[in-house]
């Protein structure tokens, strides 16, 4: 059978980029400079979807380079070496140090490019975990505008395709051959023939019910790479961020920037519980420590709870009104009404999923274990170790996006198009359309909510062996229900329930990787806090956990952390070890 008949549309390109925002847009711009054909697809709309738009955002560059390269008021006592050390220390020493070296080296020129392309900036600011002010302040909208301006200049060298969900990668042996997906507006089945694929799909935060990320981040890139046979790494490291309820309370909003203003976090006994976790920095500690502390108070019954969930309180009541007004005048993230309320009332706070520190295993050139497959940005592992410093996310997208775009283009110029396996293609198509063809079966919306509830209860911020074991027992039931999903409306045209069904398969695989990795890692480190193993163990766990699909089984192994310039301390220490 010819693949053109199996597929309703066929596109051929040199480089296919999945994801169009921070990392994806930068990769497309770079690839187009190398005289190759580029197609960039996104599950939503270009510059109107993905995690980049939600960024606050501080963008990290070493403070000396902020002064000498970018021309802002940085601190020349800082250096790239000191920046590297801070990334590794706050990543709890399990970063890939070669990737970190590349990050701190390339950051100044990549962020200067964004500024030259029109991104408005101010600052810099000093965030927890940094020894010097490295956060060049801007917004996700400004980042997107700068990147879109360059995408437009590339003209017909880049074909942008919106509302396309890539469901699977196609391989030939250990080489990339293409990808398949669905046009969400029409339901059309699409085949992409390509010599290189760059995954820039962000994280999988939406497997949890409370998240700072947009709804399209369901672990698509991690899952499709896993099914294609690529190695993933450290998927148990999921970062959570201090957040509050929006009103009406159906979504969440990060209040993490307030932690450096002198707020108090209080439990139901009126205790500032951060004194037990980080006596020197208190509420100004790093994200991993604050998130673990908040959720531990809730788990141990020292928080508040209603039908929405549990929380502690954040208060500024101890401060004079004129100081709070000064904070408000400098803030662009929170409206005046928010600050007026804080003068009188404490606000509920809890930890919401924010960033995936683990992901697809790459080297410093963004190459994965499959030839012709690359990953950039949050979808890729190695840079952040067990905890991401504030401000490194946008920088990561620009550094790795440029690297992946160049390396993928160079590969495509010298590679041949691999043959498409028609059996592989037909099997994928059958699985994609099966929810539309069943007359009865599992309900996708209900199953998605169940996954999120189980994730929150068993693989969330605070973990224990018995909860993780329960999560893995639930995985088998979730997989069975996923294989039996029947959507109630059979139309292909923007069928949201069908989209949920396709995303659920990815969510379950990400769920399983987090649970298995967290159970295997018998210690606490960074964003991974286990109540039954509360120490950080540098004698036994200076290792990365690697995930790989072998036949139909998920296999886990470990490999030593890649150490090149900064040697971690030895021994065990109570969490949080810094």
Please explain how this structure is put together.
It is built from 15 helices and 24 strands. The relative contact order is 0.17. Strands 1, 2, 6, 7, 8, 9 and 18 form a seven-stranded mixed sheet that branches. Strands 11, 12, 13, 14, 15 and 16 form a six-stranded antiparallel sheet that branches. The protein is globular. The chain is of the alpha+beta class and 578 residues long. The chain starts with a helix and ends with a strand. Strand 11 (238-245) and strand 12 (252-254) form a beta hairpin. The longest helix has 25 residues, at 496-520. Among the domains are: 240-351, Succinate dehydrogenase/fumarate reductase flavoprotein, catalytic domain (Flavocytochrome C3, Chain A, domain 1); 422-545, Methane Monooxygenase Hydroxylase, Chain G, domain 1 (Up-down Bundle), CATH 1.20.58.100.
SS strand fraction:
15-25%
Average of per-residue pLDDT values: 94
Low-confidence stretches: 1-5
**What's the CATH topology label of the domain at 422-545?**
Methane Monooxygenase Hydroxylase, Chain G, domain 1
Number of alpha- plus pi-helical segments: 15
The CATH superfamily of the domain at 422-545 bears the name Fumarate reductase/succinate dehydrogenase flavoprotein-like, C-terminal domain
User: Helix fraction?
Assistant: 25-40%
- Just name the CATH architecture of the domain at 422-545: Up-down Bundle
Count of distinct strands: 24
Instruction: Tell me the major beta sheet.
Output: 7 strands, mixed
Tell me the Rg in angstroms: 23 Å
CA-CA gap between termini: 59 Å
**Shape field:** globular
The structure class reads: alpha+beta
Broad CATH class of the domain at 422-545: Mainly Alpha
């Amino acid at each position: 059978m010819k693949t053109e008949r199996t597929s309703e549309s066929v596109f051929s390109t040199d480089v296919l980029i999945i994801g169009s925002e921070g990392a994806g847009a930068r990769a497309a711009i770079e690839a187009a400079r190398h005289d190759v054909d580029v197609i960039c697809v996104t599950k939503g709309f270009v510059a109107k979807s993905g995690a980049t738009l939600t960024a606050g955002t501080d963008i990290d560059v070493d403070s000396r380079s902020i002064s000498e390269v970018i021309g802002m008021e940085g601190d020349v006592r800082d250096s790239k070496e000191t920046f590297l050390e801070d990334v590794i220390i706050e990543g709890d020493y399990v970063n890939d140090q070669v990737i970190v070296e590349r990050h701190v080296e390339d950051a100044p020129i990549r962020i200067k490019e964004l500024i030259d392309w029109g991104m408005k900036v101010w600052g810099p600011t000093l965030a927890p975990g940094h020894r010097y002010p490295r956060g060049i302040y801007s917004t996700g909208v400004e980042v997107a505008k700068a990147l879109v301006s360059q995408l437009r200049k590339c003209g017909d060298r880049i074909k942008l395709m919106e509302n396309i969900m890539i469901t699977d990668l196609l391989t030939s042996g250990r080489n990339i051959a293409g990808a398949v997906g669905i046009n969400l507006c029409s339901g059309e089945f699409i085949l992409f023939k390509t010599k290189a694929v760059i995954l820039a799909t962000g994280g999988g935060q939406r497997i949890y019910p409370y998240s700072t990320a947009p709804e399209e981040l369901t672990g698509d890139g991690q899952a499709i790479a896993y099914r294609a046979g690529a190695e993933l790494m450290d998927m148990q490291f999921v970062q959570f961020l201090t957040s509050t309820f929006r009103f009406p309370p159906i979504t969440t909003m990060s209040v993490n920037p307030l932690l450096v203003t002198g707020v108090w976090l209080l439990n139901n006994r009126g205790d500032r519980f951060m004194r037990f976790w980080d006596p020197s920095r208190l509420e100004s500690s790093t994200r991993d420590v604050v998130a673990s502390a908040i959720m531990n108070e809730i788990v141990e019954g020292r928080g508040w709870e209603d039908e929405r969930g549990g929380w502690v309180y954040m208060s500024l009541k101890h401060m004079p009104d004129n100081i709070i007004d000064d904070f408000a005048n400098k803030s662009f993230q929170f409206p005046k009404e928010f600050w007026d309320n804080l003068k009188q009332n404490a606000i509920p706070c809890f930890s919401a999923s924010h960033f995936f520190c683990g992901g697809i295993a790459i080297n410093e050139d963004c190459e994965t274990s499959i030839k012709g497959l690359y990953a950039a940005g949050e979808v890729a592992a190695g840079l952040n170790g067990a905890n991401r410093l504030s401000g490194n996310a946008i920088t990561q997208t620009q550094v790795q996006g440029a690297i992946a775009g160049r390396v993928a283009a160079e590969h495509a110029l010298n590679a041949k198009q691999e043959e498409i396996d028609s059996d592989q293609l037909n099997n994928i198509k059958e699985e994609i359309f099966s929810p539309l063809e069943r007359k009865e079966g599992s309900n996708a919306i209900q199953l998605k909510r169940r996954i999120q509830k189980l994730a929150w209860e068993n693989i969330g911020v605070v973990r224990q062996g018995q909860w993780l074991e329960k999560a893995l027992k639930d995985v088998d039931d979730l997989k069975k229900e996923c294989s039996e999903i029947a959507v109630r409306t059979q139309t292909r045209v923007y069928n949201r329930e069908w989209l949920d069904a396709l995303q659920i398969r990815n969510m379950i695989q990400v769920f399983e990787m987090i649970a298995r990795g967290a159970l295997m890692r018998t210690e606490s480190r960074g964003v991974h806090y286990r109540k039954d193993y509360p120490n950080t163990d540098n004698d036994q766990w200076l290792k990365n956990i690697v995930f790989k699909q072998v036949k139909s089984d998920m296999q886990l192994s470990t490999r030593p952390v890649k150490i090149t310039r900064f040697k971690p301390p030895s021994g065990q220490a109570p969490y949080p070890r810094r």
